Amino acid sequence: DTEVTQTPKHLVMGMTNKKSLKCEQHMGHRAMYWYKQKAKKPPELMFVYSYEKLSINESVPSRFSPECPNSSLLNLHLHALQPEDSALYLCASSTPTGKNYGYTFGSGTRLTVV
Amino acid sequence: DAKTTQPPSMDCAEGRAANLPCNHSTISGNEYVYWYRQIHSQGPQYIIHGLKNNETNEMASLIITEDRKSSTLILPHATLRDTAVYYCIARDDKIIFGKGTRLHILP
């Protein structure tokens, strides 16, 4: 299995809702990442997990809450989002340094906040 | 991460080689050069990476200058499916994307 699977593919949520994005990989990768991508812009790094521990938070607002329950799963919990948070949310995984094989990205969850 | 500079867009005729340049003049000795591409509405896809030697795989070739200040990604026989945004990244650890080059393959 050489894929990163993200669910759901599309999500519409209201500003008072709580929802979660899910990311799963079975490549034995011990580093996992969340990126946010606005239309016509490059992906922006949000969070990095290494060996199931949060190692980098790129000053992301607290309404985004990541969780890594085990080495194969990465979640992004969403609460009280704003319409400007509408974007494509991408998950990626790699070996801990990511140097030899690069990152494997999922296809993303397209989030619309109404 | 070293800053990279890429042309915003390029055209290439189908069947010809696409040569995508990248400038990374501030790259440090332990930073690798990575190339990714992103086809519309999909996640980025890893293409190739290198440190100082030229590299080739089934997708592309990577030519890095001797001083490591620039590199070129070569797609040897471009097809319409190669239309995408191509990102050049110089990094030691986490990947930070720049604006990339939007490559149009012309039929």
SSE map:
The complex is a heterodimer of chains A (114) and B (107).
Chain A: E1 4-7, E2 10-13, E3 18-25, E4 31-37, E5 44-50, E6 53-57, E7 64-70, E8 73-79, E9 87-94, E10 104-105, E11 109-113
Chain B: E1 9-13, E2 18-23, E3 32-38, E4 45-50, E5 55-56, E6 61-64, E7 70-75, E8 84-91, E9 101-106
Parallel strand pairs in B: 1-9
Antiparallel strand pairs in B: 2-7, 3-4, 3-8, 5-6, 6-7, 8-9
Question: In short, what is this structure?
Answer:
The complex is a heterodimer of chains A (114) and B (107). Chain A has 114 residues and is mainly β.
Question: Rough shape of chain A?
Answer: globular
Radius of gyration of chain A: 13 Å
Which of globular, elongated, flat, extended, rod-shaped describes the shape of chain B? globular
Terminal-residue CA separation of chain A: 36 Å
List low-pLDDT spans of chain B.
Answer: none
Radius of gyration based on Cα positions of chain B: 13 Å
Tell me the number of strands of chain B: 9
Name the strands of the widest sheet of chain B in spatial order.
1-9-8-3-4
Number of beta-strand segments of chain A = 11
User: In percent, how helical is the residue content of chain B?
Assistant: under 10%
Uncertain stretches of chain A: none
Number of helices of chain B: 0
Distance between the termini of chain B: 37 Å
SSE topology string of chain B: EEEEEEEEE
> Based on the structure, what is the oligomeric state of the protein chains?
heterodimer
Structural class based on helices, strands and sheet pairing of chain B: mainly beta
Strand content range of chain B: over 45%
Largest pleated sheet of chain B: 5 strands, mixed
Give the H and E element order of chain A.
Answer: EEEEEEEEEEE
Structure description:
The complex is a heterodimer of chains A (114) and B (107). Chain A is mainly beta. Chain A has no helices and 11 strands. Chain A has strands spanning 4-7, 10-13, 18-25, 31-37, 44-50, 53-57, 64-70, 73-79, 87-94, 104-105, 109-113. In chain A, the strands form 2 sheets. In chain A, strands 2, 4, 5, 6, 9, 10 and 11 form a 7-stranded mixed β-sheet that branches. In chain A, strands 1-3-8-7 form a 4-stranded antiparallel β-sheet, with no helix packed on it. In chain A, strand 7 (64-70) and strand 8 (73-79) form a beta hairpin. The model of chain A has no long low-confidence stretch (mean pLDDT 94). In chain B, the strands form 2 sheets. Chain B has a 5-stranded mixed β-sheet, with no helix packed on it. By secondary structure, chain B is an all-beta fold. The chains are: A mainly beta (114), B mainly beta (107). Chains A and B meet through strand 5, strand 9 and strand 10 of A and strand 3 and strand 4 of B.
